[in-house]
């Protein structure tokens, strides 16, 4: 069967990729598959570039974990997606509990994004600069950044990232924006307002943590309303979970759903690539978060390809 990045490139996409995490890299079977650039043309570090990992105390930056994944991807000839500069989650307590003034927090964001993006200037070509800024109703999420700075925190982060790596594609990334609806409308309005203010913004990342049998019917229309804003779209964290144990019928439906997501992206030129949120069920985030659910990825826990794999290939061929 066709390797997935080969299938994506043949379809005119920039890559098919996978997230990974440092503790998985001691698993040699895992690394062998991950390292095949015909299979995965792009890698996203799942945790090691987040704020708690990179700036655990103010002004003290650590890149050991980030470097490990960046160096692996570079050695394998794979593109990188940086994840992420500013997010309400996985923040060190010095950020959340610092009671900083607006001016101070602004400079903290500028230093953080500038340093992390700058560290990998020319090496990480896509960045989730702002992660999960929206509530389900499309308004901006209340967190330390919004509560202190209002909407301005988003442009502060994007401008700092731009200054640190002018050639990187800068994204806002969120979940629950796969179909049309209030949250997607909130994303449209946010990107419009950033563009109107000449804030650098190149892309919208659609996480796509989906449920088998529930791919939104408006996925294609929604991607098109995003690309119509003059930004690119990437599917950044795709997985399709189900209630365990997985039956043959579930796996067949999952294959169809992967195919549908991929073929929908495939048909829209501004949808530039797809990343799955790790590739094997052995290392999926799902079971730890949604009790009784899992089997969300195209490889099972024993590194056997599931029907979903052929769904992805068929999606790129359509
Ligand atoms: O590093 C510690 C380790 O020292 C400790 O022994 C272990 C015990 O639980 O925890 C380890 O940290 C965990 C970390 O992943 C690394 O494995 C955290 O508890 C765990 O909460 C953390 O989960 C990550 C999650 O983000 C946190 O929000 C997942 O791996 C990661 O896949 C997930 O990724 C997010 C994206 O960033 C944003 N979109 C949603 C996506 C899925 O939740």
Distance between the termini: 16 Å
The average pLDDT score comes to: 98
Q: Biggest sheet: strands side by side, in what order?
A: 1-2-3-4-5-6-8-9
SSE ordering: HEHEHHEHHEHHEHEEHEHEHEH
From the spread of the alpha carbons, the general shape counts as globular
Percent helix:
40-55%
The fraction of residues in strands falls at 15-25%
- Poorly predicted regions are none
The SS-based structural class is alpha/beta
Count of individual beta strands: 10
Rg over CA atoms, rounded to whole Å, is 19 Å
Helix count, DSSP H or I runs of 4 or more residues: 13
Describe the sheet with the most strands.
8 strands, parallel, barrel
Bound molecules: ligand G3I
Enzyme class: hydrolase
Pfam family, one: Glyco_hydro_10
Subcellular location: Secreted
Family: Belongs to the glycosyl hydrolase 10 (cellulase F) family.
Considering the chains and any ligands shown, give keywords for the structure:
single chain, 10 strands, binds ligand G3I, globular
